[in-house]
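Example 417.
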Amino acid sequence: MRYSGLRVIAQGLTGNKGWHPVWRNPDPRPEYDIIIIGGGGHGLATAHYLAKEHGLRNIAVLEKGYLGGGNVGRNTTIVRANYNLPGNSEFYSHSLKLWEGLEQDLNYNVMHSQRGIINLFHSDGQRDYAIRRANSMINQGDDAIILDPDGVRKMVPIIDFENVRFPVYGGLYHPRGGTARHDAVAWGFARAADSRGVDLIQNCEVTGIDIENGRVTGVQTSRGAIRAKKVGIVVAGRSSQVAAMASMRLPIESHVLQAFVTEGLKPIIDTVVTFGMGHFYISQSDKGGLVFGGDLDFYASYAARGNLPTAEHVVEAAMTLMPAIGKARMLRSWGGIMDMSPDGSPVIDRTHIEGLYLNCGWCYGGFKAVPGSGYAFAHLLAQDRPHESAARFRLDRFRTGAGLMDEEGKGSQHNLH
Ligand SMILES: Cc1cc2nc3c(=O)[nH]c(=O)nc-3n(C[C@H](O)[C@H](O)[C@H](O)COP(=O)(O)OP(=O)(O)OC[C@H]3O[C@@H](n4cnc5c(N)ncnc54)[C@H](O)[C@@H]3O)c2cc1C
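Predicted structure in complex with flavin-adenine dinucleotide:
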């Protein structure tokens, strides 16, 4: 069923009785050409592009819970292409271009809103880095503007510009950045993949990976064994656990990241603002809630909920930047499990096991990567060679030390990226 304005009107006039579930609920078949483990944003996007770009149909996505129940439905929805280093720069640039045509491609309203992002800076050193990053973005063909304090004030008057500890020196403005509705992205990709014949199998946990003579032959699941010629692992925070099923030890740590939402308010922030020095960022959802977050909780964990010291830290940072926020009531908070890599950059690569592929290490920036990652991973799975946008996302860089992409310049400490 194609969605259109006319269809919405026609359905409205006839009691909305003609809508159908947007994907099937099939039982697993005994064998597929390709199995994707993980029905998050990256897994669903991979399935969509495998079917659309490579004409492959005999594919299953195996999801242990429900589609959209992982990080893809838990993030703070920021979409951007403002990276500095070669490797990341071209990948996120490609991903943002895919975002810009995504709603037409999926025939689904993912509420992609290019409302712009401002990264504040508060010292001469931070300003120098922002200018360098802006130049990298422009060289990559993306957009970047350096704002002075008055430029920031015009766009975000709610900021406390008199703060003595964190005076605002200006901001790096990325107009094409913005937000999208996270779970709609999962649903849109799911619907598109299903409509091309991909089996999306929920409540199907992968419990083992079958390997014979160095080659993958299928998976064991809570719904029985399923054979496959190729298997892609795309399970974000669970990457180390699932890779361990193939006796692989990944250079990934899982950490909790929290998000917070206030009650709905009239529009007061119409862009995304990041306050890196205070570990805080914020935007306002279309429903009016202020959506914000900060840094990781300070230890590795598989619990998809956070702890009060981090919540307190984030709220303190919010009050420092925008004291008026203290009047808003916080409605809820939650956590997600982040697959943190040692250099803060991802992996899209083959493994040493023939037919077994890996997509992980998205840290807390994997939502904006969803289309780009799905596109590149589909290319790798279908053609057995990396897509040019993701050619540097090699797993062996952590073994050899060559080609690391330490965007934050923080060294090999997972939780600092
Ligand atoms: C609070 C928070 C804020 C964030 N903010 C942003 C942001 O603003 N911008 C941004 O770009 N990124 C952000 N991120 C990061 C982003 O959400 C993730 O990097 C990205 O969603 C991870 O990829 P995914 O969508 O495929 O993961 P997921 O949705 O977690 O998908 C992985 C799936 O694998 C399934 N799975 C796991 N094990 C198995 C198994 N054994 N068998 C079958 N299925 C399995 C899980 O159930 C899950 O559904 C944020 C994350 C959090 C938690």
